[in-house]
TrEMBL record:
Belongs to the glycosyl hydrolase 13 family. Residues 224-340 form the Pullulanase N2 domain. The lineage of its organism: Bacteria, Bacillati, Actinomycetota, Actinomycetes, Micromonosporales. This is alpha-amylase. Residues 900-1060 form the Alpha-1,6-glucosidases pullulanase-type C-terminal domain. InterPro entries: Carb-bd-like_fold, CBM41_pullulanase, GH, Glyco_hydro_13_N, Glyco_hydro_b, Ig-like_fold, Ig_E-set, Pullul_strch. GO terms for biological process: carbohydrate metabolic process. Its EC number is 3.2.1.1. It comes from Winogradskya consettensis.
Length: 1068
């Protein structure tokens, strides 16, 4: 593992005339065979620095002598004599034109990189289009993968990236990438204590300069390869464990430990580690399955106090060979041992002014009336040795005051003991922009709307009967002119009853909508709280053309400072977002959030919160880091080398750790108990352990529904670290997961496909629909049941679990309540935009509207929880934006005034996530026929309400159990002879529905009238469902049923529901 010799010889060359173009470095001797050239050819002086130019030559392994000449292309030598250097001693030299002397060192150069880490990147093919630097650890802001740092300039070496770094940064980690293509598979790190500038060649792990190759990961104290599993055991990677004859745990209480050759300096104590031949104990392997191949070392037994003392300083594991040389040196990951030693903290009091900081040397409370002022008190807090909790008694007179914690702690990001200033991770209220926490009492009547204690909520809804609309607090009302201006984009907009948005929500609720799902409304990091501080586009966006790039350019210019963001950037999990309050400074956010909940309940809707416990906005010492400033290295999931995992595109948290898991449960309970929230949607739930989600469920009780994204990816994929809360794993728990199987079959393609024109059942395949796509949709209509059995396109009966979905089962749930059926959400294109890409371009608007409703009918009329993006029932568009998380109000607003259109044709969508699709998008956006008329928008909403009323009035849409679904649901025309693009679904209502014995739904996705003869229905008195007999769509009213033959006739691109009344003797 350890690199002992340099990989490059670096030769600097200075010419007074700066004429370097025709000069090169000709080298021979111990160089890589691929670097050998014939004279006078050589290696160009392509690198630039303050000295002049430099060239580089790849060395042979253990190179000891290299000869060289500086030669002109015409054969002229700069110095006639051959010169030689031992790169094992001096891998970097400096030359002056015409001077035979070789300088082995340089005088200190003035640092011109203050505030930046400078990354020079050379690609031999010269193609830098799309390449950027994704950097973190020492950066002032959390990076986003999709918007890396672009080259600041180019020089003769290649691209130059200037990455801002904090003043206290000791290193910066980075990946050079082009989209999802990385230059190297592993992250790279620049040690800022060595250099603030690095030169890299594409595909080469070792920098050309500075020479960092002598320090491999096994000798890097900034990396944490050792894992303190529990109080008895430290685990080491097998490769690391094989390097040394003996290992020692070294602890430094004052953080002064340093390596000087084979000696350790600074105050420290050592504990011998004893190899355990059998490896980890079985219980340890079960708890940490990703460590099963590690080598186990026993830790000397320590009393609680002694071990606690060791954990509050700097910890390293050193390995020595038989000659006593240090061959391994690494930091230690602590979460396992902290959970073991401080297990009592799992149920200890964490009320006001109590913070878990077991590794801190001291914690103090900074208390003030005015955040940011010079008037504050610093009060010491007391540590409980059994729990690691620091506390101070909160006084009643402190209510309303602001505070922070001062935590003195060893921090690996600084490589020393520092004092961090940090807000409370359990904050309930905050100052403007969340700089300080605020002490509040959630039971204070002043923070409760009238009638809060006796609030009458809509009756609990069985999950399989739930219909959920997804909305964002800001875009719900930001452009609604019927809302008072000061309320637009805030919680209070939901309390204004006589507004367009609230009238629409009440209409949907009256028709059958049961829940409103709110995108993140907790405190997030990416929007200035104050309206006055929020940027706005500096032009009239409506003045530009429907396919113009100008709107997105103006929006993107202020995207990071404007008032809009989806909010998946958690800062404080248990405080309402300040930018959604009328007064972001202080506790108004609490009262106004509660007023919103009460108003939505009064409108007949239960409230769901979108929660994002899988990651934080930042870690380490970044300004927006909270948890990692208190217990460094604990709350976030660490990779094998101790870096924070970022598979979520932010700093992954670790709910498998005791106190992060507890934070999740405590926070959810606060929202449910103190804010009366009725359900929770977990972002990237598959990154949570199954046991963590089940702990939340157990704490909440049966009336609060939980669902989430059960995706399987990242460092936790395939249960690598724990049994995940993924789709398959959550079967049988009653917790819902989103069904991407039906989504992809209905829409076409996949969520992250490259061709937006790929069609699905409901987006234009029509009579060309492959029958295996029918099978996936049928599984979805059953509630994605693994056990549901039906005749597939092969003619053979199969269960949902046997229907393939890209190598996974299409059916995976044990109950329809565990399936959240959807065809659109905030992610990816909203339904109208997806269809704009996919449907035939000349398709009339009324036909497009029917296709939109057909797609949505799969959501409303299937088993399980129905879910849709608010506005899709009104043909809402985001002007083809596939990822509008930061696209401002312009692209995200819901246009409640139908006369202003649906949002389509408001400019090309923002370039960062959409530019590659502009060639498809531009002609569509320029087509005025793709903007629906007001009458079409309103009729579509009314037609959608018909679907809701069918669901509400018909109990068979929402069967509670798998047994009920299997007994009542059939697809009578299934098999190889089924009409492509037409699905006939039958539901038996006997004994369940007081009116109808049979309910038949026909989904006709074809461009022609569907005539389907179902022999099993012959003799039944089928008629159109009462909600459709007077449908606002006159074409739909032409749907008929012939009871004598069981023949159903359904107009093109439509869904029709038929019912057969119970015999009179059964209806009494």
């Amino acid at each position: 593992m350890q690199v002992t010799s340099p990989q490059w010889l670096l030769v600097h060359y200075q010419r007074d005339d700066s004429a370097y173009a025709d000069w090169s470095l000709h080298a021979w001797g111990d160089i890589d065979p691929g670097a050998v050239t014939g004279f006078p050819d050589g290696h160009p002086f392509a690198g630039e620095d303050a000295y002049g130019r430099f060239a580089w030559v790849r060395l042979a392994e253990d190179a000891r002598e290299v000869g060289f000449l500086v030669a002109h292309r015409d054969g002229t030598k700069d110095i006639a004599e051959d010169r030689f250097v031992d790169p094992g001693v001096t891998p970097e030299i400096w030359l002056r034109a015409g001077d035979p002397d070789i300088a082995l060192t340089r005088e200190h150069e003035e640092d011109t990189t203050a505030g930046y880490a400078v990354i020079h990147f050379r690609r031999p093919d010269g193609d830098y289009a799309g390449w950027g630097a994704h950097a973190w650890e020492g950066t002032p802001a959390k990076p986003r993968w999709g918007t890396p740092t672009a080259p600041a300039r180019f020089d003769s070496f290649g691209a130059v990236f200037e990455v801002p770094v904090r003043d206290d940064a000791v290193g910066v980690r980075f990946v050079l990438h082009n989209g999802d293509r990385k230059d190297l598979p592993d992250d790279q790190r620049l040690d800022l204590t060595v250099s603030r500038e690095v030169w890299l060649i594409s595909g080469e792990p070792a920098p050309v300069r500075p020479d960092l190759g002598t320090l491999g990961p096994e000798l890097d104290p900034a990396r944490a390869l050792a894992v303190f599993v529990d109080r008895t055991t430290i685990a080491l990677p097998a490769a690391l464990a094989g390097l040394a004859a003996s290992f020692t745990l070294v602890a430094s209480a004052d953080g002064s430990l340093r390596r000087d050759g084979d000696e350790l300096t600074g105050e420290h104590e050592t504990l011998p580690l004893v190899p355990r031949p059998g490896g980890l104990f079985q219980a340890q392997s079960r708890k940490f399955p990703h460590l099963r191949a590690y080598r186990a070392f026993a830790v000397p037994e320590l009393a609680d106090a002694g071990l606690g003392h060791v954990l509050r300083g700097q910890l390293l594991v050193t390995g020595r060979d038989h000659d006593g040389r240090v061959v391994a040196l690494t930091a230690v990951q602590l979460p396992g041992v902290l959970d073991d030693l401080y297990a009592d903290a799992s149920d200890a009091d964490l009320g006001p002014l109590r913070v878990w900081a077991p590794t801190a040397r001291s914690v103090a409370l900074e208390l003030t009336r005015v955040p940011g002022s010079d008037e504050f008190r610093i009060l010491p807090m007391e540590r409980d040795a059994a729990t690691g909790i620091w506390s101070i008694d909160a006084k009643q007179k402190w209510l309303g005051r602001y505070y922070r914690y001062r935590v003195e702690v060893w921090h690996p990001a600084a490589q020393r003991i520092i004092t961090t200033l940090v807000t409370d991770p359990y904050s309930l209220s905050l100052s403007i922009d969340s700089t300080h926490s605020q002490l509040v009492d959630l039971d204070d009547p002043a923070l409760q709307p009238p009638g809060w204690d006796t609030l009458v909520k809509p009756a609990p809804v069985a999950p399989a009967r739930a219909l959920v609309a997804e909305a964002h607090v800001r875009d719900f009302s930001i452009s609604d002119t019927t809302v008072p201006e000061e309320h637009r984009g805030t919680f209070l907009a939901f309390t204004d009853e006589d507004t367009a948005g609230m009238r629409h929500l009440r209409m949907l609720a009256d028709a059958g909508l049961t829940h409103l799902h709110l995108l993140p409304a907790f405190d997030f990091a990416t929007v200035p709280d104050s309206r006055a501080a929020q940027g706005v586009p500096r032009c009239d966006l409506s003045a530009f053309g429907p396919d113009s790039p100008e709107q997105q350019a103006a929006v993107m210019a202020v995207a990071d400072t404007d008032g809009f963001n989806w909010g998946y950037d958690p800062l404080h999990y248990t405080a309402p977002e300040g930018s959604f309050a009328s007064e972001p400074h202080g506790s108004a956010r609490i009262l106004e959030f509660r007023r919103m909940v009460a108003a939505l309940n009064a409108a007949g809707l239960r409230v769901v919160m979108d929660v994002v416990y899988n990651h934080t906005m930042a870690d380490g010492l970044a300004p927006l880091s909270v948890l990692d400033r208190i217990v460094p290295g604990y709350y976030h999931r660490l990779l094998d080398d101790g870096t924070v995992a970022e598979s979520t595109c932010c700093s992954n948290t670790a709910p498998e750790h005791m106190m992060m898991g507890r934070l999740v449960v405590d926070s959810i309970l606060t929202w449910a108990r103190d804010y009366k929230v009725d359900g929770f949607r977990f972002d990237l739930m598959g990154h949570h352990p199954r046991f963590n989600i089940l702990a939340v469920k157990a704490a909440l009780g049966p009336d609060i529904y939980l669902y989430g994204e059960g995706w399987n990816f990242g460092e936790v994929a395939y249960d690598a670290r724990f049994a995940q809360a993924t789709q398959v794993n959550m079967a049988g728990t009653g917790v819902g997961t989103f069904d991407d199987r039906l989504r992809d079959a209905a829409r076409g393609g996949a969520a992250h496909g490259n061709d937006p024109g790929t069609r699905g059942f409901a987006t234009g395949l029509g009579s060309d629909t492959p029958l295996h796509v029918h099978d996936r949709i049928k599984v979805g209509l059953s509630g994605a049941l693994a056990s549901y059995r039906f005749v597939t396109h092969t003619g053979a009966p199969q269960c949902g679990s046997q229907i393939d979905y890209n190598g996974s089962p299409s059916g995976y749930t044990a109950s329809p309540a565990e399936c959240v059926t959807y065809v659109d959400a905030h992610d990816n294109e909203i339904l109208y935009d997806a269809m704009a890409f996919k449907l035939p371009h000349d398709l009339p608007m009324d036909e497009r509207a029917r296709m939109q409703l057909l797609a949505l009918s799969l959501v409303i009329l299937g088993q399980g929880v129905g879910f849709f993006a608010l506005g899709s029932e009104r043909l809402r568009s985001k002007s083809l934006d596939r990822n509008s998380y930061n696209s401002g109000d312009w692209f995200n607003q819901i246009r409640w005034d139908s006369a202003t259109g649906n949002g389509f044709g408001t400019g090309l969508p923002p370039a960062p996530d959409n530019e590659e699709r502009w060639p498809w998008a531009q002609p569509l956006l320029a087509d005025p026929s793709l903007i629906p008329a007001a009458a079409t928008i309103d009729a579509t909403a009314a037609r959608f309400a018909e679907l809701l009323s069918i669901h509400r009035s018909t109990p068979v849409f929402g069967l509670p159990t798998a047994d009920e679904v299997e007994r009542r649901l059939t697809f009578p025309l299934g098999g190889p002879g089924e009409t492509p693009g037409v699905i006939v679904m039958c539901l038996d209502g006997t004994g369940l529905d007081p009116r109808w014995s049979t309910v038949v739904t026909v989904f006709n996705a074809t461009a022609t009238v569907a005539v389907e003869k179902v022999p099993e229905l012959a003799g039944l008195p089928l008629t159109l469902h009462p909600s459709l007999e007077a449908s606002v769509d006159p074409l739909l009213r032409t749907a008929t049923a012939d009871p004598s033959t069981g023949t159903l006739t359904v107009p093109p691109r439509s869904v029709a529901v038929y019912v057969a009344a119970l015999p009179a003797t059964m209806n009494t």
